[in-house]
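Obj.: predict assembly geometry.
Materials: sequence records (below).
Method: joint structure prediction, all chains together.
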Amino acid sequence: QKEVEQDPGPLSVPEGAIVSLNCTYSNSAFQYFMWYRQYSRKGPELLMYTYSSGNKEDGRFTAQVDKSSKYISLFIRDSQPSDSATYLCASHTGGFKTIFGAGTRLFVKA
Amino acid sequence: ETGVTQSPTHLIKTRGQQVTLRCSSQSGHNTVSWYQQALGQGPQFIFQYYREEENGRGNFPPRFSGLQFPNYSSELNVNALELDDSALYLCASTRASGTGELFFGEGSRLTVL
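Observations (raw structure tokens):
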């Protein structure tokens, strides 16, 4: 079992839709949870960063962590074609090794 | 603020050869990590360097080795290349005193024939 599981998609939505991206994890020691966005042929860029359980909002993006169910979510409101990318969830324990999911490819159609 | 830069961006090698990839950390960051990203997969942790010493290693064989220099730049060396080494190699820097957010470069795409 992979430590972080993520549906690879692809996920295709119309412009303006609310997008829900999800991951599950198995390591109870994970304390830090991240979402990275990766455009084609580019390196990942940090989108959201959360410590422990709870919600964090930044503009059109909301990250949720539920440690009781080991579930990580990212919501994108009013999705735009420029949001088309691969979204990677990631976690670490506070140490040196960040574990990534396989990434979900998102396509937002104009 | 200068971001993470990597070189070369693309390279092609043949099986059995050796390769060196280079990375310059983001200014103010003293820790560098290397990740391997195969096509359609998430990045896999190779190792991390802090104060010129390997600080942690993932499940990669010894033919993957690295260096960190006093200016915090870094190298990834891979010996005896295999076809499965074909991937995007990502360098990421972070502050050792931070909470582990990774700042990635654009990557070096290695093709092994």
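Conclusions so far: Chain A has a mean pLDDT of 94.
To do: check interface contacts against the pulldown list.
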